[in-house]
Design goal:
Elements lengths: L4 H19 L2 H7 L6 H7 L3 E5 L6 E4 L5 E5 L4 H16 L5 E3 L16 H14 L2 H11 L9 H11 L3 H10 L5 H8 L3 H9 L11 E5 L6 E3 L5 E8 L6 E2 L2 H5 L3 E8 L11 E8 L4 E10 L11 E8 L9 H6 L5
Parallel strand pairs: 1-3, 5-7, 6-12
Antiparallel strand pairs: 2-3, 2-4, 7-10, 8-11, 9-10, 11-12
Helix pairs in contact: 1-5, 4-5, 7-8, 8-9
The structure holds zinc ion (ZN).
The site of zinc ion has 6 residues, from α4, β4 and α5.
Length: 338
């Protein structure tokens, strides 16, 4: 069956996003650097001007050749800034005429097409492929040891979305677009109430505002980089060999300026196994915008720590959204820490 012009346009845009991934060797770099496509850094590397401004009536815009520039609002969350930048990058790479975007759909190939500008359909398909390629899903699913059954659980998809730096909604559409889950599963996932998931994870504690997130960080995240907001809550869950007197040194969190809100251990009860590890759960509030290398050691308190003690480390990069001017990534490229 012949493809429709809309299908052709989407395929063309997806191929363009894949070409940029290859040109910048992004797959390997993203997988090594913590699992998010850094779209702001990619734009800087492509030598395209990107500036953040307090735009009120648009999420973003792009200027056509020969200027080749992108502007993104400072008035929205980091996830929206990322999808907007990827959408505008699509316009630039596909050599569209200039565009001002007041609304950006995150539905990739599943957005409405009737009566819509073909350039917008292309930019949406480009952004979805650029930020949420199939290989990125595979990376996180394998790394976290998730099965297909796990992926039907909204709690898991919420944690997946945080690690990929995308909204829950966009992450669901990507699962469908890459044919990882069928439509029925996606419809069920999209019914989940995210606020409720956050409440369950944070127990009685809530992130500082309704948009902030709750990260569940486990052994599987050892060595990873978490990129989030200063208002997020961090929930660390680690097995602890309490039978032999081992404890994780939660003090490392307070020493890094984190406020420890909860610290509890629980034992597997069904069946009750003597000598089985306990599950230590720590919930902590970050000290504000910060980048912290958190290193926890599991030691026996009556002796000096030694090199054989289990170590868990994670980089917590919680700068949040871009606040104005060039992106932090562009400053980094110029050797300026911001
Ligand atoms: Zn657009």
């Amino acid at each position: 069956m012949a493809r429709t012009p809309v299908e052709e346009a989407r395929l063309h845009a997806v191929a363009a996003a894949k070409r940029v991934h290859r040109a910048l060797d992004l797959q390997q770099r993203v997988v090594e650097a913590g699992g998010q496509v850094d779209v702001f850094d990619a734009i800087a590397e492509l030598d395209i001007a990107l500036i953040f401004k307090p735009l009120k009536s648009a999420l973003g815009l792009c200027l056509p050749q020969p200027l080749r520039g992108i502007m993104v609002t400072t008035e929205r969350s980091l996830h929206i800034q990322r999808i907007t930048a990827a959408h505008e990058l699509g316009h630039v790479i596909l050599e569209h005429r200039g565009s001002i975007d007041r609304e950006i759909l995150e539905r990739g190939p599943f957005g409405p097409s009737r009566g819509r500008d073909i350039q917008e359909i292309e930019a949406e398909a480009f952004a979805a492929e650029f930020l949420l390629p199939r290989w990125l899903y595979r990376h996180h699913v394998q790394h976290q040891g998730w099965s297909l059954a796990h992926l039907r659980n909204p709690d898991i998809i919420y944690q997946l979305s945080l690690r990929m730096g995308a909204s829950y909604e966009a992450t669901c559409w990507g699962l469908l677009g890459h044919q990882i889950l069928p439509r029925g599963d996606i419809d069920a996932l999209r019914k989940a109430k995210i606020a409720k998931l956050k409440l369950g994870l944070g127990e009685e504690f809530r992130p500082a505002d309704a948009w902030a997130d709750v990260w569940k960080v486990t052994e599987r995240d050892d060595g990873a980089t978490i990129t989030g907001n200063p208002d997020d809550l961090i929930r660390v869950e680690l097995d602890e060999a309490v039978g032999s007197g081992f404890r994780w040194n939660a003090e490392a969190l307070s020493e890094a300026g984190y406020e420890v809100l909860a610290d509890a251990s629980s034992f597997p009860r069904d069946p009750l196994l003597y000598g089985a590890p306990a599950r230590r759960v720590l919930i902590a509030r970050p000290p504000g915008p910060s980048a912290t290398k958190l290193v926890l050691r599991e030691t026996q308190p009556w002796r000096e720590p030694d090199d054989n003690d289990p170590v868990f480390s994670v980089d917590l990069v919680l700068h949040g959204k871009e606040k104005g001017g060039p992106a932090r990534a562009a400053w980094r490229r110029r050797g300026v820490a911001r």
